């Protein structure tokens, strides 16, 4: 039985979500494709996570694994009908990404949008653990907690895996690969769908 404390982040406690996600995505293929320069990543990625996190915090669907008052891992989930602020995201990218690379980065987001299912579903845009806390089952605990709510809604769920090594984890929780997403020189993303239970 999993004894990890998974909690929904309260309003005003965005750092519980932002910290582990920024650290966890520091070596992520897509995160570093978007922000190739380390300083650009460190300056902009916390803003990106904050933009993604805010709607989920409002929906009580931004979860973190508690560790002594802090957080070891976090996941952002959107219930059906909830999404991030695309204008704020585009603005953050425009500020941080060199102009010569911006069209390709925005093209990746466009390809992701094209592949996104139209059926009402829960969506997992981000999940990660602090690298010093990886391999301890935090990802499984976060998925289990959120999928309890997804299943209570009898809803399907969707994600894009940016790391091929994580595919088996998602498959253990019932997600199936539905294709590949790539734009220009970007790394691949694997869209994954989990049917309603």
Oligomer: single chain
- The CATH topology: Aminopeptidase
Q: Could you give the count of β-strands? A: 7
CATH first level: Alpha Beta
Biggest pleated sheet = 7 strands, mixed
- Give the percentage of residues in beta strands: 15-25%
Structural class: alpha+beta
Overall shape: globular
Tally of helical segments: 7
Overall pLDDT score: 93
Distance between the termini: 22 Å
CATH homologous superfamily classification: Gcn5-related N-acetyltransferase (GNAT)
Give the uncertain stretches in residue-range form. none
Which sequence of SSEs, written as H and E, runs from N to C? EHHHEEHHEHEHEE
Q: If classified by CATH, what would the architecture be?
A: 3-Layer(aba) Sandwich
Q: Strands across the major sheet, in which order? A: 1-2-3-4-5-7-6
Question: What's the helical proportion of residues?
Answer: 40-55%
The number of domains is 1
Radius of gyration: 16 Å
Question: Can you put this structure into words, describing what you see?
Answer:
Strands 1-2-3-4-5-7-6 form a 7-stranded mixed beta sheet. The chain is an alpha+beta fold and 197 residues long. It has a single domain (6-194), classed as Aminopeptidase, CATH 3.40.630. It has helices spanning 15-24, 29-34, 38-58, 86-96, 99-115, 138-152, 167-172, and strands at 6-8, 62-67, 70-78, 122-129, 157-161, 176-177, 190-194.
């Amino acid at each position: 039985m999993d004894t990890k404390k998974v909690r929904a982040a309260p309003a005003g406690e965005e750092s519980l979500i932002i910290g582990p996600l920024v650290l966890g995505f520091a070596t992520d293929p897509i995160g570093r494709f978007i922000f190739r320069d380390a300083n650009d990543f460190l300056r902009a990625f916390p803003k990106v996570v904050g933009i993604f996190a805010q709607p989920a915090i409002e929906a009580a669907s931004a979860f973190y694994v508690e560790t002594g008052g802090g957080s070891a891992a976090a996941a952002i989930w959107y219930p059906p009908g909830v999404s991030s602020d695309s204008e704020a995201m585009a603005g953050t990218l425009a500020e941080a990404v060199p102009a010569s690379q911006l069209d390709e980065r925005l093209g990746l987001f466009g390809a992701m949008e094209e592949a996104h299912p139209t059926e009402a579903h829960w969506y997992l845009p981000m999940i990660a653990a602090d690298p010093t806390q990886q391999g301890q089952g935090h990802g499984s605990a976060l998925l289990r907690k959120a999928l309890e709510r997804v299943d209570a809604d009898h809803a399907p769920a969707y994600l894009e895996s940016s790391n091929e090594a994580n595919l088996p984890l998602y498959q253990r929780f019932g997600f199936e690969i539905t294709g590949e997403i790539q734009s220009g020189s970007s790394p691949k993303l694997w869209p994954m769908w989990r049917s309603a239970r």
